[in-house]
Amino acid sequence: MNKIISLLLAFIAISNYVAAQISFSVKDSADWALNSDFDYNLSSYLQNDATDNTDTLFEWNLTGLDKPSEWDVTVCSGELCIVNPTTPYRVTIPKGDKMNFKLGFSFYNTTGDASAWIVTHSVKNPSIRDSFRLKMRAGTLSLERVNNKITFDAYPNPVVDKMTVSFSDGGTRTILIYDILGSLKKSEHMVSGSSISLADLPKGIYVIKLEGGQSFSKLLHKL
Fold it and tell me: Which of 38, 75, 93, 155: CA 20 to 30 A from 49?
């Protein structure tokens, strides 16, 4: 009996040790957002504490995806962002380093519920793995939310080259365009109804905001 207990304790210790060699800083998150916020994403850092210095190549996969058909899901690993990924992707994380992962949903003004898992494992030692999950609910926009707030339209969306921006007050504003990782890519002072060239931006998903710290924003798909 004591031998069985000892074996079980040893197995548990080994399992915990294997799992601890890589770990996400956030394991599980559930949140609620207004669909006018265009999207919501969760950040979690994957730490590589493997004992083998050569164990630096990892593969992540999106699994357990459940979302409204109108929504998009985006996964970022480091600076690589993939919209609606369908295949595994590999990243390199040196021993002792960490990489920022982001998992997010884009609502496109559609209400609903969604959930997804990111599962990551070592390519060299597949038993070394960890995962994190995001559960999301997007609700409707209340009238109080838009009172005393300047909103805007940006079109066409998706866009190839030029984009027109119209402000709800018909005035002039500075628009800020960020990539999905939050890096500012473009800033332009514009008159309502004027256009801006986006030809220099790579294809991908961007966030448009107004200067001044207002929370209203829109998701832009650059083709």
Answer: 75
